[in-house]
Amino acid sequence: MQETLLALGALMIIMLIAVNQQRSTIHIHEQVYVREISQARDDFAVRLLEGISNEMSFDEKTMALTDIPTNISSLSDILGPDPGETADSTFDDIDDFEAYRDTFMHVISADTFFFDVTFNVSYIDDDNTTTTSKTFAKEISALIAPLQDFGKYGNTLTGVFSKTKVIYEDF
Fold it and tell me: Which of 31, 82, 116, 163 could form a disulfide with 49 if both were Cys (CB 3.0 to 4.6 A apart)?
């Protein structure tokens, strides 16, 4: 009888060790997946903001100019899309992205990630501080969150990324 109880106790100890090992393995896999999603988000943010900064003009009113404007009054008065510009495919300058929100797909190798992106565009002064006054520098920022539900990791996978564009980059 004692041997049976000892054997049963040994089996329970082995079972507890196996369960803890499984928990540890699952936790490691979760952490690896969270890092993969974070890296995909970071890569997507850099590509998205660099693409917008490189492809879009600084301002609607400066697109046809051949020289760098020196007068602030030559810039648009309102940040945001112009009439008829309702999607990123119709935008032609950086401030058209102000308050724009959309879902984007990002493919890396065999993985496909979907992100909800909300943009904010603002003028910034010489100290890189947001200002309501027109300047020759704009900052576009994007709040990027994965669309998939990641439970307790969801909040850590949301990030804000920004890129500054200065008017002389267009000329």
Answer: 163
